[in-house]
């Protein structure tokens, strides 16, 4: 039998917003990236700027699709109880989806791969 999901609120997530205690949420799952911040290829600034908040759209915009497979090792065991997607993010995700279908995303820019992650 699977263990029941554990939840925190967005307010509780906001408390984990500093170096040494740095949590982010991606699609409602909460990740503790406190240790990863010193190894993050993009440096610590992006993680510090998104600490204690939803980082879904930034994650999608700046990481290749293969990055999703590495998230599990940072999963805190918590989900956001009050997770929701803002209207702005919904619009952004629709654009990503439509542009991806049209083949408008470049696969590589200056050595970085950019994803074509789709949401429904």
Automatic annotation (TrEMBL):
Keywords in alphabetical order: Iron, Lipid metabolism, Membrane, Metal-binding, Oxidoreductase, Transmembrane, Transmembrane helix
What's a GO biological-process term for it?
A: lipid metabolic process
Among PROSITE patterns, the record links this protein to: CYTOCHROME_B5_2
Coarse class of the protein's main subcellular location: membrane
Q: Could you tell me which pathway this protein works in?
A: Lipid metabolism
The yes or no answer to whether the keyword Transmembrane helix is present is yes
Pfam families given in the database record: Cyt-b5
Where can this protein be found?
A: Membrane
The molecular function GO annotations come to:
metal ion binding; oxidoreductase activity, acting on paired donors, with oxidation of a pair of donors resulting in the reduction of molecular oxygen to two molecules of water
Using the record for this protein, list the coiled-coil segments as residue ranges, or answer none: none
Sequence ranges assigned to domain Cytochrome b5 heme-binding in this UniProt record: 5-89
The way it spans or sits in the membrane comes to: Multi-pass membrane protein
User: Does Metal-binding show up as a keyword for this record?
Assistant: yes
A Gene Ontology CC term for this entry? membrane
State the family named in the UniProt similarity comment for this chain: Belongs to the fatty acid desaturase type 1 family.
**Record protein name field:** Acyl-lipid (9-3)-desaturase
Its organism's taxonomic lineage begins at: Eukaryota, Viridiplantae, Streptophyta, Embryophyta, Tracheophyta
């Amino acid at each position: 039998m699977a263990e029941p999901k554990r939840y925190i609120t967005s307010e509780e997530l906001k408390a984990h917003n500093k170096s040494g205690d740095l949590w982010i949420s991606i699609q409602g799952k909460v990740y503790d990236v406190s240790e990863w911040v010193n190894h993050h290829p993009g440096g610590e600034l992006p993680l510090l700027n998104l600490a204690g908040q939803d980082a879904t759209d930034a994650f999608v915009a700046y990481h290749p699709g293969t990055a999703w497979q590495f998230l599990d090792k940072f999963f805190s065991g918590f989900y956001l109880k009050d997770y929701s997607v803002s209207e702005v993010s919904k619009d952004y995700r629709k654009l990503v989806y439509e542009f991806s279908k049209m083949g408008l995303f470049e696969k590589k820019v200056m050595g970085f791969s950019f994803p074509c992650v789709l949401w429904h």
